[in-house]
Amino acid sequence: MAERNPIIKELDPVWERILREGEEAVKSEPLLGGLIHSSILHHRSIRHALSYRTSLKLASAEMSEQILREIADEAYAADPQLAMAARADLTAVFERDPACHRLIQPMLFFKGFQAIQAYRVAHWLWNQGRKDMAYFFQMRCSEVFGIDIHPNARIGQGIMIDHAHSIVIGETAVVGDNVSMLHSVTLGGTGKEEEDRHPKIGDGVLIGAGAKVLGNIKVGNCSRVAAGSVVLEEVPPCKTVAGVPARIVGDAGCSQPAVSMDQRLEG
Predict the structure, then answer these.
(1) Which of 61, 145, 219, 235 is the most exposed place for a label (fewest CB within 10 A)?
(2) 214 within some domain
(3) Listed GO cellular component terms (predicted)?
(4) If you average pLDDT over every residue of the chain, what do you get?
(5) Measured between alpha carbons, how far is 250 from 204 in angstroms, rounded to an integer?
């Protein structure tokens, strides 16, 4: 097990809690001891654990775990914001997903969280000019998790993707901070135009399951997109849109819909 630093709790309470939860999980389910030790307890920081977990999940006959881990380690060492964003994502999942009772659950089991962390490394690679390797990360993320995020998309922190299957986020999409979305969401284009062609999602937005937001349009801060909606026009801040095509059906209902996760439409 990684050596426990006596001041780590003060410096990184998220990682300290993950370590504590890992130790408790090994005691309650010894058969998972190997998984939990290799993925969590063996590592000296959250960034090393994230690097290991990402490389393990994305490894294939085409690219070894060792090579992928070296790439991920390089990314986390060069950009400390990657690990900071992961902490915010973990906290977001824990606070918003009623099925999440411990921080180790997203680290070990939730593909939405894991796919976002793989995207973050791919985005770093893209910005370093290593586009082919970024595309490899995107491909493997799609194959392993069923989530397709272009490495050039810009995604903030505090992101919660619940269930996460069939998420598609296009090349020029922008997603703000503290956004929540459910499975089968598409942030896509409307044709073959090659310039800025994907949605711009504001901070604190909640996007329901199966919703499609298409084209270079803005979805304002703290708005809600109802499940199954097809959004083709700009959405003002703090509003709820629903339908095909989506129309404004009321206010968002609260100041932080992405946190409350209330998807009900009032009469």
Answers:
(1) 61
(2) yes
(3) cytoplasm
(4) 93
(5) 17
